[in-house]
């Protein structure tokens, strides 16, 4: 990404619609309700041959106290300071309001470059507003329709000369992110686990119920008040991603909206927020499930953790607000007992206590994340697996339904991230789930894979026999070898 653009303006002028248009995806929440966007959201924008980072901001409101709108304004001003270019949006159909004039003055003082755009400018009804935009003193306004994609060529023409100035800096500073691993990289052994780099940062998602302290925790990790926080539950509505270094490890960290029980998710905006958080879990590598120490392991917490496990992500359980817990030892015993009982599918996953407010326990949390990531990438040699499988069968043979013995012949690991195994056997459809659980629990214990999701598949011999092609090749080689010996023997007799 050669440069960054912050889209700023009053609430409900179409900033998130334009953001989605530039990134080519529905990443930001869009609704007719003003004030939907509350945090800074970043995405990879493209316009013609230009590639840039685009930042969606909260609507600028003329508030300076400690209210929620005022904190949103300060956060947007931070986005203005961060960005290389500010795209100032006004509503062409409404025209220039006093707040537009105030914010134009702020941008003149704080922004490096300002481009003025009159949005919702389709049709003759917007002509007066476009002409009125000249009065802001920011040059000729671009006539845009973010909803219909009109006017983007004019935006491209204004961005092109500015982009050239940032190319050299981008080559030195801008990291390459969200790079997919090749099949070979995914199957590397445990001793060659791919460590996160600036080009391939470790993707971390923080999920939990509303007001568990997710944004506060991320601000503490960042060492900066980058995400909007406050006593109100449900302030975060989008899944916000940020790139940084945590303990020397490059990471991309997602803050998500709080996920409440489905019966309580009534408003359209909150429904969109929950699906946004689910998407963030799917794109993460390690999921931090943040609990409130006062009310841990409620039904929704369990559902969130189970979602992360079903998606095949490494999971870390973090218990927040530990600084205000009075009976820590007794509480920790209760937490561990509840964890083992309620989430057996994640048995052994890291369980750490933190205080997002004070920052205590963040070093332990970072160690737990790296531990979960290492286990998630683990690769076990086929020879080891088959020696282990033989010992497991000897200890507890598989059942014989209707007198037919199920033979487990061969085992290999076919995937990592999370570890996935295939066992070649007879009558795979008759092997009970309890025996598969027996093998999975044995893998966790004997190969030090606590907590990570493990995928175990049973396959019949048939066409899926991994030795089938090798037998054919060996038989052909043997036939050729014997034929050569016979020819040699006949030649010697002659």
From TrEMBL:
Subunit structure: Associates with the 50S ribosomal subunit.
Region (Disordered): 457-494
Function in brief: GTPase that plays an essential role in the late steps of ribosome biogenesis.
Database matches in NCBIfam families: GTPase_EngA, small_GTP
Alphabetical list of Pfam families matching this protein: KH_dom-like, MMR_HSR1
Stored PANTHER family: GTPASE DER
Keyword Protease recorded: no
Domain spans labelled EngA-type G: 3-167, 202-377
GO molecular function terms attached to this record: hydrolase activity
Family: Belongs to the TRAFAC class TrmE-Era-EngA-EngB-Septin-like GTPase superfamily. EngA (Der) GTPase family.
Keywords associated with the record: GTP-binding, Hydrolase, Nucleotide-binding, Repeat, Ribosome biogenesis
Residue numbers binding GTP 2: 208-215, 255-259, 320-323
Record field: compositional bias (Basic residues): 468-482
Sequence positions that bind GTP 1: 9-16, 56-60, 119-122
Protein name from the UniProt record: GTPase Der
């Amino acid at each position: 990404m050669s440069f960054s653009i912050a889209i700023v303006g009053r609430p409900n002028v179409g900033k998130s619609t334009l953001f989605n248009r530039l990134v080519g995806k529905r990443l930001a929440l869009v609704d007719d309700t003003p004030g939907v966007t509350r945090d800074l959201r970043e995405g990879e924008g493209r316009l013609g041959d230009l590639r840039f980072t685009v930042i969606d901001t909260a609507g600028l409101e003329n508030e300076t106290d400690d209210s929620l709108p005022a904190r949103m304004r300060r956060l947007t001003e931070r986005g203005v300071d961060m960005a290389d270019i500010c795209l100032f949006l006004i509503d062409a159909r409404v025209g220039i309001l006093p707040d537009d004039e105030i914010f134009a003055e702020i941008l003149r003082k704080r922004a490096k470059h300002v481009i003025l755009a009159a949005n919702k400018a389709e049709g003759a009804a917007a002509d007066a507003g476009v002409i009125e935009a000249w009065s802001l003193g920011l040059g000729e306004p671009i006539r845009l329709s973010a909803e219909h994609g009109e006017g983007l060529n004019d935006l491209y023409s204004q961005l092109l000369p500015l982009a050239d100035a940032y190319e050299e800096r981008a080559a030195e500073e801008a990291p390459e992110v969200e790079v997919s691993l090749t099949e070979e990289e995914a199957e590397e052994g445990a001793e060659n686990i791919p460590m996160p780099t600036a080009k391939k940062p470790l993707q971390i998602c923080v999920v939990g119920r509303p007001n568990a302290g997710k944004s506060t925790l991320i601000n503490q990790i960042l060492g900066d008040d980058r995400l909007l926080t406050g006593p109100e539950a449900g302030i975060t509505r989008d899944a916000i991603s940020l790139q940084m270094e945590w303990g020397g490890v490059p990471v991309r960290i997602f803050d998500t909206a709080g996920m409440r029980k489905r019966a309580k998710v009534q408003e359209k905006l909150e429904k969109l927020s929950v699906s946004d958080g689910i998407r963030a879990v799917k794109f993460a590598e390690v999921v931090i499930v943040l609990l409130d120490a006062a009310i841990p392991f409620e039904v929704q917490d369990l559902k969130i953790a189970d979602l992360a496990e079903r998606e095949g992500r490494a999971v870390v359980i973090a218990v927040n607000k530990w600084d205000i817990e009075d009976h820590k030892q007794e509480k920790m015993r209760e937490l561990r007992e509840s964890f083992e009982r309620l989430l057996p599918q994640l048995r052994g996953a890291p369980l750490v206590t933190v205080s997002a407010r004070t920052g205590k326990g963040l070093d332990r949390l970072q160690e737990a994340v790296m531990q979960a990531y290492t286990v998630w990438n683990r690769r076990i040699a086929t020879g080891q697996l088959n020696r282990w499988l033989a010992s497991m069968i000897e200890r507890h043979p598989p059942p014989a339904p209707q007198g037919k013995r199920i033979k487990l012949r061969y085992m290999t690991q076919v995937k990592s991230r999370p570890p996935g195994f295939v066992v070649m056997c007879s009558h795979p459809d008759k092997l009970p789930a309890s025996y598969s659980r027996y093998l999975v629990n044995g893998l966790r214990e004997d190969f030090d894979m606590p907590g990570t999701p493990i995928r175990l598949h049973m396959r019949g011999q048939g066409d899926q026999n991994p030795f089938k092609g090798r037998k054919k090749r060996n038989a052909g080689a043997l036939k050729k070898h014997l034929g050569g010996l016979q020819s040699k023997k006949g030649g010697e007799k002659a």
